[in-house]
Amino acid sequence: MKRWLPAPRLSLLLLLVWLLLNGSLSAGQIALGLLFAVCIPLALRAYLPDALRLRRPDVLLRLLGVVLLDIVLSNLTVARQILGREAALNSRFVWVPLDLREPAGIATLASIITMTPGTLSCDLSADRRHLLVHALHVADEAALIATIKARYETPLREILEC
């Protein structure tokens, strides 16, 4: 089965998207969708990542809640900061050391940081041990690093790594 469908969920997603985009459940569209759903993953098999195993779905739900709350609170904080005195802002770049080694986890961490207003992930060191983050206001660099590690990186490690 794995030989013909190296990524069954991707194949199902491709079929569903094809049918939704075409707005038709005709036999021809289903056949063409099935053809794409089988051929595309086969052609891209070498580029497909290994399947991730989420070890702690409860932590994933908690992390989702934390991220959503942080996005809302950060929006309010950034609005207050940009409407205030410009001289009060202390924006800077900070290298955040990473304990996370899973590439998908690092990408997720970078995305979370970028989605949170006031911060932006900018670069990853060549050895993947540091993430460069730009923050709109940094009162304490160590506190920023500790917050990122505690609120986002630690839960991601629990979810993706042993």
TrEMBL record:
Residue ranges of the TM segments: 61-83
Chief site of localization: membrane
GO cellular component: plasma membrane
GO molecular function: monoatomic cation transmembrane transporter activity
Subcellular location(s) of the protein: Cell membrane
InterPro entries xref list: Cation_antiport_E (IPR002758)
Membrane topology: Multi-pass membrane protein
Keywords associated with the record: Cell membrane, Membrane, Transmembrane, Transmembrane helix
Family: Belongs to the CPA3 antiporters (TC 2.A.63) subunit E family.
NCBIfam families linked: PRK08965.1-2
Protein name per UniProt: Multisubunit potassium/proton antiporter, PhaE subunit (TC 2.A.63.1.1)
